[in-house]
Design a protein that fits this description.
The protein is α+β, with helices and mostly antiparallel strands. Helix content is 39%, strand content 29%. Strand 2, helix 3 and strand 3 form a beta-alpha-beta unit.
Length: 119
């Protein structure tokens, strides 16, 4: 079984998070917590049976951001939000056995589409 949800807009990059961490570890924690809370709010209630594979499709507004930085922070925040919302019991390799990333451009509608596939 597969379920899907869409997060409108974009998340900060891994570099943005690292910059906040370098300024002050508390600022870094607040930065991550703020964005994770936003994602938690947007994830609909759903039931999935682990183990799962997460398929991410990142729709960027332009080609200016490095793809690994886009996905790096996004993976962390989205997976932690899935655990916090109790959609997954944990984000360990026992529960999430893999993920894929696809990147596309959509200047008018940047978003992140996440498909959860039960294995």
């Amino acid at each position: 079984m597969k379920v899907k949800f869409i997060l409108k807009g974009r998340l900060p990059t891994l570099n943005d998070f690292i910059e906040a961490e370098r300024q002050n570890r508390y600022k870094g924690a607040a930065f991550k917590g703020r964005h994770q809370a936003e994602v938690e709010w947007l994830i609909p209630k759903m039931k999935v049976k682990p183990p799962v594979i997460l398929h991410y499709t990142w729709y960027e507004a332009n080609s200016k951001r490095d793809l690994d930085n886009v996905a790096g922070f996004g993976h962390k925040v989205i997976q932690d939000a899935l655990v916090k919302r109790r959609i997954l019991p944990d984000d360990s390799p026992k529960e999430i056995v893999g993920f894929t990333d696809t990147f596309k451009l959509d200047r008018k509608n940047p978003r992140i589409e996440v498909e959860i596939e039960e294995v």
